[in-house]
Amino acid sequence: MGGRLTRVFRTFNVESRARREISKEKPTPAPRHSTSRVDELADNPEIQEQIYRKDDRLLTLLKDVYVASTDPPVRVKDGGDEHLPCKQEEKRLTKLGHLGDLDVNKVPKGKISIVEALTLLNNHKLHPQIWTAEKIAAEYSLELKEVNSLLEFFIPFTVQEFPKETRKAI
């Protein structure tokens, strides 16, 4: 509502206001200051000659200048500034390798790949007596607390196929 009201005031009598602005006399620019220095240089040949004349004394001094530059000595870093890992991460080979190039070959200890996660979740779902949390933790080098959380909060999807007779009923 406020936009309509402001638009009315903004567009009120636009044409006559525009004609009034166009018909005004344009202001004359302020007079420029005459630059007397440029005129003096152009008129006086002695100054022009001094500008273009070479000074032999300055040229000899310039020829005597010799600059020798050398690179600063290279300092070996003592490693105090950088935070390097104190040991390399231990990696383990994955249990599955049937996906070839798509599957990860080495995983850090304490972590699992997505394929392994889906496999262990499915194994636990199908055979919970065999694939207990302790066995999964030992098999995949995981902590028992993390395995319990994984089994509690993540459930793999199941695909259910309905027989053709029940499809018609649905």
From TrEMBL:
Q: Which domain of life is it from?
A: Eukaryota
Organism expressing this protein natively? Syrrhaptes paradoxus (Pallas's sandgrouse)
Q: Which protein is depicted?
A: NADH dehydrogenase [ubiquinone] 1 alpha subcomplex assembly factor 4
One Pfam family of this chain: UPF0240
Gene it is expressed from = Ndufaf4
Question: What residue intervals traverse the membrane?
Answer: none
Where do the segments described as Disordered lie?
17-46
Traced from the root, the source organism's taxonomic lineage reads: Eukaryota, Metazoa, Chordata, Craniata, Vertebrata
Q: Where is the composition biased (Basic and acidic residues)?
A: 17-27
Quaternary data: Binds calmodulin. Interacts with NDUFAF3.
* InterPro entries in the cross-refs: NDUFAF4
